[in-house]
Task: structure prediction
Amino acid sequence: MLPLAQDRRGAPRYAIERDVWVRRRGQLPAAAALINISKSGAAVRLRRVATAFGMTWAFCLRSGDEVHLSGLIDDPVACWVVAEDGDVLRVRFLLDDGTRAAVNNLVARLSGDWPEVQP
Result:
């Protein structure tokens, strides 16, 4: 898969369609769809799911808020919001060595660049 055009980040990003969950302590998980990913972050589209209390809390996230993405790799990935645009959140990963290797492996599979990175 080719990197997306006009990438402004240092790491190439790759288009991917995958269901994920945006999580925050004390809140129910918010459904989202992964749009693209790089070794340093991702873009996710929040699902517009109405609840008895209105739209999900995730639509209130702002730059600097810390969240976790579940469903990306085996373990939740810590990240912070760097931009929001309507229903799209752009996040930067906060990776330890283990999650860095797993995210790098996922990006390597998408780019066709193997072998697997060992933690």
Summary: Residues 1-7 have pLDDT under 50 and may be disordered. The first strand starts at residue 14 and ends at 23.
